[in-house]
Design a protein that fits this description.
The protein is an alpha/beta fold and 373 residues long. It has two domains: 187 residues, Glycogen Phosphorylase B (Rossmann fold, 3-Layer(aba) Sandwich); 162 residues, 3-Layer(aba) Sandwich (Rossmann fold), CATH 3.40.50. The chain is built from 13 helices and 13 strands.
């Protein structure tokens, strides 16, 4: 079959969906569609076709949005897919609209509801009207957490029997795995936050809590990884420079090899109040057997069982975040080892990427049996 995958960046497809693309290109004719300007080298050897198109990923200007929708429609029309899988809030909606015009089944993945869900005024009403109409016409909808699923059901945005829950984007359990530290040189106790540097990811809260922690504890380091966001929602370079000047604080910038980085840290922190699906950084950290600190936000709390593999704190609560980070430092070696094992077991039980790939394959098979040819 001709199968298309649509996302808001080549980076997303490369980092979060590469295994899915590999599984599908072995059986189907696959095309990928993403906004222009992304890096694509990791997908060059897969034997798929790549279709960059124009899209302002974070904008809301009506003419630019119409241009982006038409660009995606033309991109898909050239590829002539029989089924389209889509990801990310804006590209989900635009893929649904383009597929409706083309009369092609579209299967979106709701990885959080995105910032559009928080729009007010006329733009907010327009978004909700369009989302309600087009999600109801999806062939199937994947949800990454139960809160989003229940919200869509309450709003009447999905049809009964045409949706399912999946464990985020899944994680490669062979690549992300615990490592034995026998014989390793002693090193500082390390915290890591790895995320897009958006304010809503809790970057400022992490910086404030880690600065307070470093002021009273020695033998500890706090790392921050992630590229600067060009949009107004991001933290500024000046803020990062000020935090980086704190002894023990280190800003690593964008990191490609997360598996290697995770082997150098003890606790992964994500104090997000962003509308998440299931954060990839948390499930990768769980697979590596790390202690986790996150918020009680939907999606985040799915990866942390309080007292077993980490801590949940209220969003935007610097003091609670500081308390959790301090608690992680005071664990005995036996307590720490038990929590590390609990993280790995949770990843094996719930977040294996093969679970996700199998569900995608099953839904595609259902579409085939229902007459897609």
């Amino acid at each position: 079959m001709r199968v298309a995958f649509v996302a808001n960046s080549a980076w997303y497809l490369r980092n979060f969906r590469l295994s899915t693309l590999q599984a599908f290109t072995g059986v189907h004719e696959v095309s990928v569609h993403y906004p222009e300007g992304g890096a694509v080298s990791a997908m060059n050897s897969l034997g798929l076709t790549q279709h960059p198109f124009y899209l302002d990923s974070s904008g809301t200007h009506p003419l630019k949005e119409l241009r982006g929708l038409l660009a995606l429609w033309r991109s898909l029309r050239r590829a002539r897919p029989e089924v389209v899988f889509s990801f990310n809030p804006k590209t989900n909606l635009y893929a649904l609209m383009a597929c409706w015009l083309m009369r092609v089944p579209c299967i979106p993945n709701v990885s959080g509801v995105g910032n559009a869900s928080q729009l007010g005024g006329a733009k907010g009403r327009l978004y909700r009207t369009l989302a309600g109409f087009f999600y109801r016409r999806a062939a199937h909808v994947f949800f990454q957490n139960s809160d989003d699923c229940e919200a869509f059901l309450r709003a009447g945005w999905v049809r009964e029997g045409c949706y399912s829950l999946i464990p985020g984007s899944g994680v490669d359990l062979a690549r992300f795995a615990p490592t034995l530290q026998t014989g390793a040189k002693p090193r500082p106790f390390r915290f890591l936050m790895a995320a897009r540097l958006l304010a809503a990811k809790g970057v400022r809260e992490y910086c404030a809590a880690s600065r307070a922690l470093l002021a009273v504890h020695s033998g500890v380091e706090c790392w921050l990884a992630g590229g600067l966001a060009a949009e107004t929602r991001g933290v500024s370079e000046a803020e990062l420079d000020a935090w980086h000047a704190t002894p023990g604080a280190d800003y690593l910038g964008h990191v490609d090899d997360m598996a290697s980085l995770l082997h150098e840290v003890d606790v992964v922190v994500l104090p997000s109040y962003y509308p998440e699906g299931i954060p990839r950084s948390l499930i990768e950290a769980a697979a590596c057997g790390k202690l986790l600190i996150t918020t009680t936000m939907p999606g985040c709390r799915e990866v942390v069982v309080p007292g077993e593999n980490g801590w949940q704190v209220p969003p935007r609560d610097e003091q609670a975040l500081l308390a959790a980070m301090s608690a992680a430092m005071t664990l005995s070696p036996q307590e720490r080892a038990a929590m590390q094992q609990a993280s790995r077991e949770l990843a094996e039980r719930r977040f294996d990427e093969q679970i996700v790939i199998q569900q995608y394959q099953q839904v595609l098979a259902q579409q085939t049996s229902q007459g897609v040819s």
